[in-house]
Prior knowledge:
By secondary structure, the protein is of the alpha/beta class. It is built from 26 helices and ten strands. The protein has three domains: 3-205, Spore Coat Polysaccharide Biosynthesis Protein SpsA, Chain A (Alpha-Beta Complex), CATH 3.90.550; 210-444, CDP-alcohol phosphotransferase transmembrane (TM) domain (Four Helix Bundle (Hemerythrin (Met), subunit A)), CATH 1.20.120.1760; 447-644, Up-down Bundle (Four Helix Bundle (Hemerythrin (Met), subunit A)). It has helices at residues 12-15, 23-33, 45-54, 70-78, 130-141, 152-162, 183-194, 198-205, 213-218, 223-233, 237-257, 260-287, 292-319, 325-355, 367-380, 385-393, 397-411, 413-442, 452-456, 460-463, 472-495, 505-513, 531-549, 554-576, 590-603, 607-643, and strands spanning 3-7, 38-42, 59-63, 66-68, 85-89, 99-103, 106-110, 117-125, 167-171, 177-179. It has a five-stranded mixed barrel. A two-stranded antiparallel ribbon has the order 4-10.
Amino acid sequence: MTLAIVLAAEPAAGRLTGARAPLADRLAAQWRRAGADDVRTVADLGELADLAAGATGPVLVSGVDLVAHTAVLRHLATSPVGPTVALVLTDAPAAGQAVVREERGQVVAVGDADATGVFGGALRVGAADLPAFAEAARRAADVPPGARPLDPVDRLVAQFAAGGSLIFAQRVRLLVARRVGDAAQRSAAESAVAAVDEDRAELRLSVKERDDFFTTYFVSTWSPYVTKAAARIGIGPTGVTMVSVAFAVAAAVLFGVGGRPALVAGAVLLYLGFVLDCVDGQLARYTRNFSAWGGWLDTMADRLKEYVVYAGLGYGATHAGFRYGWALALAAMTLQTVRHMTDTWYGALHDEAARRPKAATGDAGGIGGKLNAASTRVQADTGSVSYWLKRTVVFPIGERWALIALAAALFGPFVALCAVLVWGTSAFAYTCGLRTLRARWMRVPVLTTVDAGLHRDDGVAAVRSLPVVRRPLALALLGAFGATALLVWALSAVHGGRDLPRWAVVPALVVLLGAALGARAPHAGALDWLVPAALRAGEYLFAIAVGVAGRVPAWLIFGYILVLTLHHYDLTARLEKRQSAPPLHAATLGWVGRSTLLVIGSIVGFAEMIMAILGTYLLVVFVASVVLAWVVGPARAHGGERSR
């Protein structure tokens, strides 16, 4: 149940008395329309603290001086960015209003000298944060009368932020939200609210404020019309996602068939599938239909679609006469997955750095600090050439799909895969180099704030008794180097028509398993956010090398790596969506167990059979884990609620 509380406390309440209906009553009615199950109006922070302490679900709080569209309150109540979200405005602060500093969508300080906005007088508090919020309300209520420069709701958010709670920011675009100090300001704000077409603004808001160049100019210019149509006929975001997957699969089939008409048709379907990929998110924002399942599914579907397309291109290139079509597809999938692992962990690192005091993140005058300042300036210069170059050079998904579609239609699958690899490798070198410099400046050990063992994916049984060996990144990179050396040896032997000795995989396995020695070490180094990506690279390259050495069909190697990427994307999607570990994570054996089984199969001469069996087993475990997490788990929870 969602509880909304309107804080009608002095002095704000006294400034807004008048002949018209009290603003507190209007806000209470708006909270009900925004989805609140219960709405209370309180006169002091002590009563608010008692209500928050007794709540069992999210709590919505607003001061009495807020005039806003109901959509603004609904967006705050349903925001998917985090459990606790505060409204942040760009207005100049008036007397009694708290200023805030926001970085990467987080409210990192209240009352900071480097403020980027003003608290909008409303926030949503997640259930897990309610004890800290109630305590903050009591502290705010106990401030001596002579030391109260802020209004009650502003004192409340200042105390809440000072307690260390993670608060995300909800900015207002196109709609109206203003804090008013008297009847004249209230009248002006109400006139501004009435002047905006709320539904039209919400449709425009469904499009991301900042997106990539191709998406901005070749998709978002017309995708809102599709979004509006989907909402009218009742198709949900999940349904749109499934249609998008179907389009991508059809495009992959056409790329595999080959021939100019099929390639052009595949390119068109790929483009339309990407449009629908944007529409599902726009539809979720327009209808406020968010869920953890939907966010997870969107992340997983994006990767599955892209890699199925790589498979179609690899098959098509091979049948067009290019010997290494599948090898290029494998390289593209491995490169993109490792890139995404670095993206996820660098993002977590940057979020953690934003929450730290500036003095704790290093010298702003160093090269990392200068790079950070330059990046901030470029990002702020929206629409400039430098802004679009920065967003395009990193090769985001819109640009990848556009390049694949154009290259495949004009030149064929082989050129499309080569183009993806060349641009992707350049983008990886660029982003990884700059991020390494900036990470050394930030000096934030991100893996100490999350479950490093889970995301390393070593396997519980394999690492439980290992000694603690320092420098986990060096060990992971060494393991990846050993796998690369084995792969080069295997490719050289196959190209020369020779067979690799069966024992050759053993030394590479020993080097790879050395990476597991860092499993129990503190991941506190400035660059240890690279560890998960290095481990993924090591396992994938080793599996490919074992497959090549064992003469396993290329399509089977691709399928096995694809299953591994699904497993690892499941972990990263859960990290990004703040979900717990997959129910059957222990059954996936860890990269240590999986790599060891592949070597055993290679030594006994059954590499193909072992890879097929292991891949099938991992796929079954993945599907079962999805069912347990997203079907059985929620059903049990709902059943428990009914029984109570």
